[in-house]
Amino acid sequence: MGCEFVYAIVPNENIENVILKHAQAKVKSQLTIESTHMALEAQALSQAQLNIEFNRRVDELVNEMPYDFWENK
What we know:
Elements lengths: L14 H26 L6 H18 L9
């Protein structure tokens, strides 16, 4: 028949955006928990420090893509 059968899952948006949004959600969740613990110990970060840490971690996740990246922890 001269044809090829293709079965694929196609995201509704650009895959880079999907990865970035997931990384941001993961980091936001982590920082929320960590910030609460740090505040209880009187070691809270300023908003500027939190923004810097947020951006650093998002970049790290996107660039390294650890094996558990898609797991919701």
